[in-house]
Amino acid sequence: MSMMRAIQVSAKGEPMKLVEIPVPQPGEGQVLLRVEACGICHGDSKVIEGATSSYPRIPGHEVVGIVEKLGVNSTKWKVGQRVGIGWHGGHGHTTALTTDGGYAEYMVAYEDGLILIPDEISAEEAAPLLCAGETTFSALRNSKARPGDIVAISGIGGLGHLAIQYAKKAGYETVAISRGTDKESLSRQLGAHHYIDSDKEDIAEVLKSLGGAKVIIATAPNAKVISSLIGGLRTDGELIIAAVSDEQLQWSAMDFLKGPYTVKGTFTDINEMEAAIRYSILTDVRPMIEVFPLEQAPEAYEKMMSSKTHFRAVLSMSK
Q: Per-residue pLDDT for 245 more than 80?
């Protein structure tokens, strides 16, 4: 029996542990992937918090790998192809919540949950685009903004640093918003035309002085900051929330009537994933990553959760 190394969570609330287990075998409509890289995302915390359908569970929903073996009646992919999978696991499954994820040397996936990953991008750089990248890409792609409009990105972290690049490449007048001045230089290097220090400046007032933002993407999970952003929109502007937070937002009916404004959320969409990858390759958008070997997954996860990663942590099976 062939064995593999994997990171498992044995039960709700338990820490991640490196284990050696049998290589899984693909069933009907599935393929076996030899994992090349897997991104570490805040959403992986759901595995520890108890959101999975069963335990033990292997985390990881930003997976790039090579098709190693086909299951019965699996015809969409060929052995040797390079593919990726995100939250949408195919057949109604959620990767790492109802099926095992990519913190492992091998992974079984439904063929309809996979997308093609071209050779023009490395596995380590492609992995974060399957969640963080696609989320911000589709938010802009499906927004009201048009080239030349002002687009503001609130929060310059794992999602925000990608959103700045997408906004700049798409021809928007791009505004970066963050606390302090530590990220101003980087924001401008990534393409931001303007920078707002939310510690010293009123976000809404600065945006209004620029003419108002057609679209604001909120990527930082700070309810107070998110609530303040609506005042920086132009007439018929749109606030898109990409941040994961359980905090209550503070708005009144008058906040919306002043616009009118629209507030909506965004999440990953498998139908947008291939477009996000293609666009990233065409425009040279890349995530800033720290790469770790599989056995360091627990340490890399903790570093990510404490916001000490610059900016996306990625596990590489060849490291």
A: no
